[in-house]
Amino acid sequence: MPANERISLAKTLTSDDLERIASSCQKQLTDEAMYYLESRRIYPKTIEQFGIGFQSAKIGFAAESNSIADYFENRIVIPVRNGEGKITELVGRAIDQREPKYKLLLGNEEAFFNETELDESDEVILCNNIFDTLILIQEDLPAICLQTSVSFKAVHAQRLIGKRVLICLGNDETGLRESARIENLLRELDIETYIVHLPENIRDINDMFVNFEEPLARFLDLLNATIEQAMLEPIASDFRNIIVFNEEYMKRFRGLVSGVSSGLESLDRALLGGFRSGLYIITGTTASGKTLLMKQMADHIASGQTPVIYVSYDLTAFELWARSIARILGKATHEVLNGNLVPESVFEANQTYHQLSQSMWTLEMPFDSSIQYALAQVEKILLTLGRPPVVFIDNLQRIPYSRRDGEVQSAAQFQAMMAYRFKELSREWQCPFICSIPAERQEHPLPIGVEAAADVIMELRRESDKHTTAGRDAQSTMSLTLLKHRNGALGTLQLNCNHSRTLFTAAP
Prior knowledge:
Layout (H helix, E strand, L loop, with lengths): L2 H8 L4 H12 L4 H9 L4 H7 L2 E3 L5 E3 L2 E3 L6 E7 L5 E8 L7 E3 L7 E2 L3 H4 L2 E5 L2 H9 L4 E4 L7 H5 L5 E5 L4 H15 L4 E4 L9 H7 L3 H18 L9 H12 L11 H6 L7 E7 L5 H14 L4 E5 L4 H13 L3 H5 L5 H15 L2 E5 L6 H15 L4 E5 L16 H18 L3 E7 L9 H6 L2 E12 L5 E13 L5 E8 L4 E4 L2
């Protein structure tokens, strides 16, 4: 079901509707689903207690004029209940390799799974996912988690006031960073907080209980050791991170960690494998081709089924679509914008674009739209995805100032503040932010704050042009210079921009 249809349906579903869906899924628990749950060490009594089900195919549920068909197809379905026992959300977990692993039906981001524990215990273990939480519940431990990969926010922290919180997330670099971020949020509210580090080569709590002998005893020892160590050493040294850092390096050594491809092989090599979590700035003079390059990269990423959110403060959604259609047809953009092409060819190109459009969200921002509004829309989409997207912001310079942004002295200061915000979100959401802004090294350099916030700065420059007999630019020789690369080498890539085909390619 497309995200917009699911959001529309969410407004009509009642708790009774959710009960009927959950009941239908419980009746579909197959041997394959039971084997999967058994492999995750989830006991039959837990399956019954939480009403866990499975959707093997279309379930044919209808709510008035809306319907749910195969939204949770081939997924374990887990109901989330509030303190009154009513279902407020359904979470699906794929039992195969499909993405995203976890899907929410309604997108309820504020609730915890097993949140009734907050009323019953002064101490909670904040887990990485629902299966980690179920494992600990089976052992009578007070465990909670967020329902999917939604980021932990201030609203979640507020609900933990008065508790002692032990954070036990994934045993990798991402989990380590997120644990530290949550710890800071909680300690700002004077919440007693500890980070529990799992043994080497163990991914998460579920992995530990599946593979260790006497896992409960060993886990309790970890909890006690964590609290004792914190009392002896209130501020942790880097010693705790050595194992995690070594495991992260080995993942990279084995080629298990890679970035998102830009579609330009030479750029991917320069970026050490593609785009990763961080802030990327593309600069260049006005009309240098920044938007054309960003849209080409966005389409390539979406064609690989990686979610893309394209926020435009510059061109309209139609103008961006026209660039994509022109590239598919091998035509100049102005031929699409002027309606010069045979409609049948455009319709055929649209069928090709349809495939990638299912992973593309274009947000055309009115000129008076604040960045808070734009990011709120991005976050709504993020909740429907269940996995990190790639976010494009085009054009940072045109984002209007709002009083809600605080006091700023100049446009440069405001742009720097936006850049730092994007950098912060790139870490919180674990996704790349790719932003364009007009700038030129000599005459109009980037604001110092923007330069400081960026992980990578790339300058797109037109070096020379070849013209058609009609006087239009047919092809330009371009340079893409890495002016800043926080973790790699600087250098210049040679590109060709074929205006008659709306296409960037690597120069021979």
